[in-house]
Amino acid sequence: MALPAVLATPAEHARRTPDKPAIIMGAGGEAVTYAQLDERSARLAQALRDRGIGEGDQIAILMENNRAYLEVTWAAQRSGLCYTAINKHLRPGEVQYILDDCGAVALVTSEALADAVTDLDLSRIAVRISVSGDIDGFERYDDVLAASEPMPEDQAREGREMLYSSGTTGRPKGVRKPLVAAPFGDPAAPPVLIAKGLEMRGALDDAVYLSPAPLYHGSPLVFSMSWQRLGATVVVMESFDPELCLELIERHGVTDAQFVPTMFVRMLRLPEEKRRRRDLSTLRSVIHGAAPCPVPVKRQMMSWWGPIIHEYYSGTEDIGTASITPEEWLAHPGSVGKPMQECHIVGEDGNELPPGKVGVVYFVGGRPFEYHNDPAKTAAASNDRGWRTLGDMGYLDEDGYLYLTDRQAFMIISGGVNIYPQEAENVLSGHPAVADVAVIGVPDDEMGEAVRAVVQAVDPARASAELAAELVAFCRSELASYKCPRSVDFVDSLPRDPSGKLHKRLLREQYWAGRETRVV
User: Three-state DSSP class for 394?
Assistant: First the structure.
């Protein structure tokens, strides 16, 4: 069904399909209808305004995935506010840094995070709300809603998320995008244009969208809200479990979903009988991003789910995007697609490189943004021609398809040779004994850096010198020896956040402690 001329909002869907579920919690099964989502978010929006929170002000959300999460973000979105979703796994000092840096004047949290917030200095945060349980100094969410009238629709204005980078290469920075002061649902507003892109891809309002990742991350949050602009039901997993994920697809007739590659790996590692017992035939389109997907993993997923797996490459900064269809990927395996903006590959000397040569990926155009409170970092994202980069390395092929090799900060320099660890990671991830892997540069007196693999084994009992030698040999059968690890360390788990992003900085710091280090 096509959308009306003015793109739908929760209020529009509440009028058209009031009893349709807007949210279904995966494990708990709680449901929020569009009528409830609209009324509750409008009541919270008015309550925030009554407490002096005005357009352009900053609020913070520190919660686990729960039924109120999207109610709160929609309240901010329709109030013209900037809102920052904070990773619930951060330590109190890290949370404090983000609260102080973003200038939050309101904080919404939950009983599950009570221990974390009690250690914070909240003296500058005037409005504090707990969506569940009693927390000293916080108002109860249901009481706040009950005492407020819904904000009138004609007073609603589009807000904007201000999310913080994951901090994989340093301290996180807020990505601030300009507010447009547009009426709620204005077709020209950037959040609306994102949803419009889904509609142009063929998304329908009968869709059931599965969001298996934490909502405090950019893509899960933005995609979930965009699907709700289209009238879809969003199934939110409290946390990712591969077996439950397949069950939810079958139970709710999921049509569309978004994953990260580590989720693919975890589902592929399930026993064959558990993978095959579920009916996944309702799936129409699956998209993945956030981290590189090894070619063998994606081929296995295509073999299992069919040619329905799309891929995109982007960043919170919105300065450049690429996407690739299943059919294109099968013809260009390993590519993240053709850039939607003008794209250039730049070498160390600042000159543009020809097809097939690896350099820093730059884009021309994109949406405006700045790194909050860090003009130097904002300026560093641009070169002297005004092209901007996310800090990724890669190359373009003769057909204009983009391939990523690694983050610029993670490149290994061994004996003066540049080595991109993603190549070895992609190979090693295809070994049946490997559950997860990171390849990093470690100190070496002769070469400066040596290539080392840090591996989580599928069966920890197999972690041994023999398996290490087998993995090195396996890698050397596919890649030049200088690109392959000279040694392997086994660990119980790698420092990934729930979105699948690997915090290599934390891993590298363990090896470079006390040494002159290239960790940035």
Answer: strand
Return the structure tokens found at 439: 């390849």
Among residues 84, 81, 83, 85, which one has the least CA distance to residue 56? 81
The DSSP-derived string for 106-133 is EEEE-GGGHHHHTTS--TT--EEEESSS
Question: Please, where in the chain does CATH 3.30.300.30 lie?
Answer: 411-512
Q: In whole angstroms, what is the distance from residue 303 CA to residue 326 CA? A: 11
Q: Per-residue pLDDT averaged across 264-271, rounded?
A: 90
**Crossing angle (nearest 10°) for helices 242-252 and 261-268:** 90
Region(s) of the chain under CATH 2.30.38.10: 337-410
User: Which helix (H) or strand (E) element contains residue 33?
Assistant: strand 31-33
Residue 190 is inside which H or E element, if any?
Answer: helix 190-200
Answer CATH for 411-512 from 2.60.40.1930, 3.30.300.30, 3.40.605.10, 3.40.430.10? 3.30.300.30
Nearby residues of 89 by Cβ (< 8 Å), 6 or more positions away: 497, 498
CATH homologous superfamily for the domain 337-410: Luciferase; Domain 3 (2.30.38.10)
Tokens of 182: 């547009």
List, for residues 427-486, the tens digit of each pLDDT value.
898 899 999 999 999 888 767 789 999 999 999 999 999 999 999 999 999 887 888 999
- The residue among 179, 189, 258, 263 whose CA lies nearest residue 224 is 258
pLDDT recorded at residue 165: 76
Cα–Cα separations (whole angstroms), residue 288 to 211, 243, 295, 309, 425: 11, 19, 13, 7, 18
Residue 2: count of CB within 10 angstroms of its CB = 7
Question: Can you give the three-state secondary structure of 158-169, one letter per residue?
Answer: CCEECCECCCCC
Predicted confidence band of residue 181 (pLDDT cuts 50, 70, 90): confident
- Packing angle between helix 34-50 and helix 69-77, nearest 10 degrees? 60
For 286, other C-beta atoms within 10 Å of its C-beta total 23
pTM score, two decimals?
Answer: 0.82
Residue found under tokens 């690997």: 502
Which letter does DSSP use for residue 182 in this model?
P
User: Distance (Å, rounded) from C-alpha 351 to C-alpha 369?
Assistant: 25
Q: In whole angstroms, what is the distance from residue 404 CA to residue 395 CA?
A: 7
Q: Helix, strand, or coil here: 414?
A: strand
Using CA atoms, how far apart are residues 64 and 22, in angstroms rounded to an integer?
Answer: 18
Assign domain 10-229 to its CATH architecture.
3-Layer(aba) Sandwich (3.40)
In 3-state terms, what secondary structure has residue 13?
helix
CATH 3.40.50.980 in the chain is located at: 10-229
Taking the C-alpha atoms of residue 312 and residue 331, their distance in angstroms, rounded to an integer, is 16
